[in-house]
Design goal:
alpha+beta; 6-stranded mixed β-sheet; 4-stranded antiparallel β-sheet
C-alpha cells in the first residue's frame, strides 16, 4: 500500500508538472492530506507549495495550521496559511467548501501553480455518492468527485483510507485531528458514523459498490456531455434543443448554466426544459439560483445583468438580504405591520428583483427600518440609506 500511494502521487505530478514550476498540495493536517503532502515533497523536492486553509471554525485551528506549515517548511516545501471567513448559512459544510476553494484558487493564481493536489480517497468518494443519493441527485450527481477538475487533481481517489494510514505510520508523519470530523451536526459525519455502518451490515462491500456506481455514472456523463455540448452554450436555440432526448436537453441546460456561473436544482432544470419545449410566445423568464434565464422567441439566454449600487448601512444598523417571514411597518401604510413577501407582491416587484432585495436592520432590536423596493419604515428618516457612487456618497 505504501508504495502504491507513492506511485499514485508520483504519476499525477509527472503528468502535470512542467520542467520548471511548482505544484500545490492542500493540507489540513489529517492523515490523508499529510500522506499526500509528504509523498509530493518526496516526488518533487523544492517544487511543492503546501497550502493550509484555516477555516477558523474551531478552537486551536490556527495552531494546527501553524504546525502543518512548520512541518512543510522543515521538509523543504514552501508553506502558506490562508485564513478564511465562512459564511453563517444553513449548510456550514457548503459555506466552508466555498470559502476553501476560493482561497485555493487564490493560492494557485498567486504562485502560478501547475495544479493543486487534494487528498480525497475512496472513502470520501463512497460517502459523497451516498450523501447525494439521500438528497435525491440525478445521474450527473452520482458521478460524485472527479479525479481531475480544472487545476485540481486527486491522486488518492482510487486508494482506500488504509493506504494513507499505512503511509503515515511508515514515515512517522505527524497528524492533527479535525474537530469537524466529530461534529454530528454535519451530514458527512452522520453518513460516516451511522448510515454506512448500517449498510455495511447488509453488504460488507458497500463502499466498493458506491465507488463503482460513481465510476459508471462518470462514464455515462462523459457520453452524454459529448452529445449535449453542441447545445450547451448560451444563447440556446430552443427549436434545435427541443428535438433532442430529455437526458441531452437537461444536461445541455445544466452545462450552459454552469458556464454562465448560475446555480440550479432539479426543479430549475425541469422548468427550463418545459420552457425550451413550449411553443414560441414572445418573452418568458424563469428564476434560477443567482439570476434568471429568459426565453425570447426561440432564443434562451441569461437575463442581462444590471449593476446594483452598493448600499451603505449607517452606524448602529446592518444590511442583509431579506428572508422569508420578515415583517416591517412601512411608512406608506402608516405603520401597519405586514410581511415583506406580501408587500413585494402588492408592489408587483418581479421575482428576480425580490431574490436579491436587501433590508436595513437596527442592531438594538433587529427591526427592519428600510427595505429595498419598499422604502423606509414609519418614523424613520427618508435618507436613512446611503448609496456609494464614484467614490462619493449620496442619500437613497
Amino acid at each position: 500500500m505504501v508504495r502504491t500511494l507513492a506511485d499514485a502521487v508520483d504519476t499525477a505530478i509527472g503528468q502535470v508538472l512542467p520542467a520548471r514550476g511548482q505544484i500545490g498540495v492542500a493540507c489540513s493536517g489529517g492523515a490523508d492530506s499529510m500522506a499526500l503532502a509528504a509523498a509530493a515533497i518526496a516526488a518533487a523536492p523544492g517544487r511543492i507549495v503546501v497550502v493550509t486553509i484555516d477555516h477558523r471554525l474551531s478552537a486551536g485551528s490556527g495552531e494546527i495550521a501553524s504546525g502543518v506549515a512548520a512541518w512543510a517548511t522543515a521538509r523543504g516545501a514552501i508553506a502558506e496559511i490562508r485564513a478564511v471567513e465562512v459564511a453563517d448559512t444553513a449548510s456550514i459544510e457548503a459555506a466552508a467548501r466555498e470559502a476553501r476553494y476560493a482561497a485555493l484558487d487564490a493560492a494557485i493564481a498567486a504562485h502560478q501553480l501547475a495544479a493543486m493536489l487534494l487528498g480525497h480517497t475512496r472513502r470520501d468518494q463512497a460517502e459523497t455518492v451516498l450523501m447525494r443519493i439521500v438528497r435525491g441527485t440525478g445521474p450527473a450527481g452520482l458521478a460524485a468527485i472527479p479525479a481531475r477538475r480544472g487545476p485540481y487533481l486527486r491522486p488518492l481517489l482510487a486508494l482506500p483510507r488504509a493506504a494513507t494510514e499505512a503511509y503515515v505510520a511508515a514515515h512517522d508523519l505527524p497528524t492533527w485531528p479535525d474537530p469537524m470530523n466529530d461534529d454530528r451536526d454535519l451530514a458527512r459525519v452522520r453518513v460516516r458514523e451511522h448510515l454506512l455502518p448500517l449498510l455495511r451490515a447488509e453488504n460488507p462491500a458497500i463502499d466498493d459498490a458506491l465507488v463503482r456506481l460513481a465510476a459508471s455514472s462518470r462514464e455515462w456523463l462523459e457520453a452524454i456531455d459529448a452529445l449535449a455540448d453542441p447545445f450547451a452554450g448560451f444563447p440556446i436555440r430552443c427549436d434545435a434543443l427541443a428535438g433532442q432526448p430529455a437526458a441531452i436537453r437537461k444536461r445541455a441546460l445544466a452545462r450552459a448554466l454552469e458556464r454562465a456561473e448560475l446555480g440550479y436544482d432539479a426543479v430549475h432544470l425541469d422548468a427550463l426544459d418545459a420552457l425550451v419545449r413550449a411553443p414560441t410566445r414572445g418573452e418568458v423568464a424563469l428564476d434560477v439560483i443567482g439570476g434568471r434565464v429568459v426565453r425570447s422567441y426561440d432564443n434562451l439566454a441569461p437575463a442581462t445583468d444590471v449593476t446594483r449600487e452598493p448600499l451603505v448601512a449607517p452606524a448602529g444598523y446592518a444590511m442583509r438580504a431579506w428572508q422569508r417571514g420578515d415583517r416591517m411597518r412601512p411608512a406608506r401604510l402608516g405603520g401597519h405591520s405586514r410581511k415583506l413577501s406580501d408587500l413585494y407582491g402588492d408592489a408587483k416587484v418581479p421575482r428576480h428583483a425580490r431574490a436579491t432585495a436587501r433590508v436595513l436592520v437596527r442592531l438594538t432590536d433587529d427591526a427592519i427600518v428600510w427595505a429595498e423596493h419598499i422604502g423606509v419604515a414609519v418614523g424613520e428618516p427618508a435618507d436613512l440609506v446611503a448609496v456609494q457612487t464614484a467614490g462619493s456618497f449620496r442619500t437613497h
